[in-house]
Amino acid sequence: MKQFSTILLTGIVLLALAVSAGQAREMEGVVKAGYTSTDLEGNQSLYEPTYNLEEGFAFSLDRFRYQMENGLKLSADLHNPFLDNRRLKFGVVKSGHGGVNFKHNAYKRPYDFDGKEFTRRYSSSGSIWMRPVKQVKLFGGFGYVEKNGTSINFADPSPVAEMHEVDFARQSYYGGVELKHERSYGRFEYRTTDFNNDRDTSTDRKAMRLRATFYTPIPQYEKVVVSGGFQHFQNRLENRFDTLQANSFWGAAQYSHRWGYSLRYSFMFDRARRTGDPVDTDNLIHAVHLGKAWPRKGGVTVGYSRRLNDDLAVKRSADEYSLSGWVRPIDRLTVRASMNMLSDVIDSGRTLTGAYDRSRHSVSAKYSLKDAYVKISVSDRRRENDDIGSKVEFMRTVGELSYTNRLYGRIAGSIAYGDGKYENTAGMFEYEELSLTGQFWSAEYKKMQGGIRGIYYRAKQDIDIESFSVEFSGRIRTQDRIGVELVYSVHNYDDLDAPIVMYDQYYTANVITALVTYDL
Amino acid sequence: MKRVFLIIILVLTTGVAASNWPAQAQSSEVDDETCLACHDGYDTELSNTAHRLMTEGTASPVQCVSCHSGAAIHVEDPTTENIGNPASALPHVTEGTCTSCHQGHVMARTAGYDPHFGQDISCTDCHQVHTTHEHQLLDEEAGFCADCHTGIVSQFERRSNHPLTQEAVSCISCHDFSGNLNIAVGHGAGANCYSCHAEQAGPYLYEHEATSTFSTHGDGCLSCHNAHGSPNEGLLTQHTQGLCRQCHGVPPMHLTQHGGIGNQHDCIVCHSEVHGSYTSRSFLDPDMGIKVGDDPDGCYCHSLNGFTGR
To answer: Among residues B1, B3, B183, which one has the least CA distance to residue A192?
Structure first.
């Protein structure tokens, strides 16, 4: 709360500064005030979309933009600042000169039937930048994450899962400089992070990261650009005298020809070691991509990469091939497809997972009209570990359509069907799932608008879940700028295959929000 | 520290608000007035964006010709064919234009950790210069990512998911192509997760190699979790017992001792420290001995670091 007050206070100061700095040139945004009422029944730990629901006075300032004559811009999106599910964002920017931005949000996750045992995560961040001259940009910022409350073991499905207290905070500060000269660019950044766990101080740690990156076209031959960087990372457990550190290097060169050909080579090398370890772990990747594009008609890219991992005890390598392309046979139709195959080999030593092969394929087509589109996509993924007898397969098909009519409004919908299959020594785990979404939002008629949207989800086979949510909303504009909004939503969740009767696996929520709105 | 930081912010903010640096005029073949004589209203459209037309009072002047090349010929013969338009140019041509100011994004792309590379997708597929949206994105909602990634977005409707629909996170919370987030190999992939889930970051005395991207074994958090959404709880790719057995066999003793405990309970009941442990090589619950047998050193025959034979 203290932190929230600090941020709010700073926001007010910034607002006052900005307002006093010049006369308003343009202003837009919507102020909303009202009340959110909730009626919850069942197990509140089940249904994620309403985890962060709060009952009480609702207030928001949406898409606020305020432009001064001198170019200073103030922006703010404040959602429920007086409730525990707040999302706040505001900033002051002067293009080409500098800016200050803040973000803050709070997120609640309940873990028990009544929702009395929960954790809440508060995240805040701020950034500032300034460009004293065209070639130099100074930047800095902070981040703060705090989580406290009562949690259960994340994977324990039993009804008597043990509760435990959570109370930690992580704060980080960073700063650096960007340097530019024509199209060349360099960036240097230093970041430090402190993690403090009030429940177990032996896990407190301190991390730092130093990073330098660059990008530049080759002088006299600007079709070739090169980029690269270096990073040093350290993570030290304060009370255990244990430090993990890693040094990473990466680089790339890209050539682009005016006929649409492009060729790129890139590499990345990472060496990690921790206190007490006699050896380093090395990760190295080389990748080459060759592409050809035909403007507005299509393109194709073929790629190959080789990955090496080596920690002396184990040495493994992987070859990866990729092919992707798109084609627009007629202006309204775009078809995309891609495939990717990876084969991993254990060159020496033994690992738990052994060698594996992996592949991914996808194809999609989109047909667009002026006010409508239809889209379909199919994708699949496979992974096989013969050494340990495990295998994973996924497939997913998605269809989507949208139609907008100036007189009547917009209607859209989607259907997604997928299945997954895991095979291993425990047996087989299979599921198939179906997601349906639909929405309609009417055009304004006699200062009134209305809409409905819904989501239906069903998962079957080794799990058996059904959930849906439907939202009805209406808006009436009483005067030019003043209006009333009413939103009613109902959510339902059922685990139809709940393994233990005493732990109810259903949840229902009715939520009503009534708001008065004012257009700035 | 916080107080010092706030003071620095206020001082710099005052500087930003009051500043009016001397002009660094950009040489131009055609000035903005000439363009606006035909393209009426474009200056107003851009006035509330980062690309506000200005040649004075800024360290980074922006003019029409900053993005649209070939204006001199276009003025003589105004057709759509002879004016440079980043929105319809080849990806690398658009990149060339945008990188005259925005090198950071393309740097990330060139170095290979932007998967859009090679998909014939350029800056203008996600950004539109002539809009007032934040960061000049086509749309401020997740919708514009969904325009291509249809199948991914529907995964956020699963039983457990990251709170995208509640707007607590957005696509770019994890997928940031500006080059400022973490590189996607080595420790980078996990570091993205740890920026929120700091409690799992380690380093641990006993690392679970599957979760450690520093090892030769692990794929990081994604070894067990599907970050977008999962039909199982906790974003897990499958139920716990099956999840563990995706990599591990069951030791023979687990099947015979304690009435075959290995087939009666989920692995996680005893091996609760799956992200890594400071006390047990086998990731055993540090309180297990107390819970089961009032033995702070372990669970009867088992010390926290393995079988003792007692």
So the answer is: B1
**A223-236 burial string, b = 16+ CB within 10 Å, else e?**
eebbbbbebebebb
- 3 state DSSP class of A509: strand
Q: How many C-beta atoms lie closer than 10 Å to residue A347's C-beta?
A: 12
Which percentage of chain B shows pLDDT scores above 70? 61
Say yes or no for a CB contact (<8 Å) between B57 and A71.
yes
Average pLDDT across chain A, whole number: 86
**Token duo for residue B303:** 């010390």
The verdict on A292 touching B (C-beta cutoff 8 Å) is no
Q: Which residues contact A278 (CB under 8 A, 6 or more apart)?
A: none
Instruction: Please report, for residues A154, A316, A491, A496, A505, the alpha-carbon distance to residue A501 in angstroms, rounded to integers and kept in the order given.
Output: 21, 47, 22, 11, 8
Residues in A 194-213 with any Cβ partner in B closer than 8 A: 195, 197, 202-203, 205, 213
Q: What is the pLDDT of residues A187-238, one digit of tens each?
A: 999 999 999 999 888 888 898 989 998 888 888 887 898 988 898 988 888 8
Give contacts of B154 with chain A, Cβ < 8 Å: 398, 414, 416, 435, 437
Kindly report, residue by residue over B235-289, the tens digit of the pLDDT.
888 776 778 877 777 777 777 776 676 667 778 878 888 888 888 878 888 777 6
Residue B57 carries which DSSP code? Answer: S
The answer to whether B130 faces chain A, any CB pair under 8 Å, is: no
Answer whether B217 sits within 8 Å of A352, measured CB to CB. yes
Task: Give the residue carrying structure tokens 């997708």.
Answer: B121
Domain residue ranges of chain B, discontinuous segments joined by +: 37-140, 188-307
Q: Does B196 touch chain A (CB under 8 A)?
A: yes
Q: Is B231 in CB contact (< 8 Å) with chain A?
A: yes
Distances in Å between the Cα of A495 and the Cα atoms of A127, A501, B238 are 43, 11, 16
Asked if A303 and A289 touch (Cβ cutoff 8 Å), the reply is yes
Which of A139, A142, A101 minimizes the C-alpha distance to A123? A142
Return the structure tokens found at A318: 């992987």
Query: With bands split at pLDDT 50, 70 and 90, how would you rate the model's confidence at A306?
Result: very high
Are A363 and A377 within 8 A, CB to CB?
A: yes
Q: Looking at the complex, report in whole angstroms how far the Cα of residue B234 sits from the nearest Cα belonging to chain A.
A: 6
Predicted ipTM of the assembly: 0.79
Q: Which one of B7, B10, B19 would you mutate to disrupt binding with A, by most A Cβ within 10 Å of its Cβ? A: B19
This prediction's pTM: 0.82
Beta carbons of A422 and B238 less than 8 Å apart: yes
Question: What's the per-residue H, E or C state across A174-210?
Answer: EEEEEEEECCEEEEEEEEEEEEEECCCHHHCEEEEEE
Q: Is A499 on the interface with B (CB under 8 A)?
A: no
CB atoms within 10 A of CB A430: 15
B120 shares contact with chain A (CB less than 8 Å): yes
Q: Across the A/B interface, how many CB contacts are shorter than 8 Å? A: 344
pLDDT of residue A100: 94
